[in-house]
Request: fold
Amino acid sequence: MAVSEQMNDLEAQPPAENASVAPEQLSGAALVPTLTAASGPTPAFGPTPGPPPIPGLPPLPPLRSDDGRVVLTDTTLTVREQPFLLLELERAELTPVRWILWYLLGGLGLAFVMIAFLQNWLHTGPAMLGMALTALLLAYGHRGTNRLRLHRLGREMVNFALPGETPPWQRLTAEVNRRIARVHDHAAREAAALLAAADEATRQAALAAQAAAEADENTNNNPLTVN
Reply:
């Protein structure tokens, strides 16, 4: 009987109230450290420093021929008042040219005067005068002129006749070729520096895009969801 009364008293007691405690919600702020720790530190891509500037070419004194027909500076070549940029020239070459017409006229005239003098067709005075004139023609044709040929990049060649002795023109032509190679080498170095800067900028942009794509992928693949 005592056991039955105790059981009836337990059944008569009201049931214990369930504690209405809502489950803890995870906020977005709580996920940020988790994502950051999982994905690692985000690389920072700042502005890429450009390549060091190419120093300019040291100045060279201008050169001028004795007759003033050719003037050479650091960047230009002027021949008979016609200017050319050294960058548009490939090279310059000088070739001595004999005037065949005057050369032949002088040689044939000298031979004819000597034959006429030996055959007594001419007296001594006229024969000496004829020999002198034909010898001058022969020397003039043999001396000829100097042909300066300028090879231009992608364009036709330009020829100039430069009278006078050949050695001074040869020295000036050699200096022209040296300065042409100088400006072309400097332009090539500048172009290489610009190309390297463009390649580096492209690489940095690709790395930044890859890092952004990896960050988005890590966010989408995170098993934690924000309620």
Confidence is low (pLDDT under 50) at residues 1-47. The first strand starts at residue 63 and ends at 64. Residues 166-220 form the longest helix (55 residues).
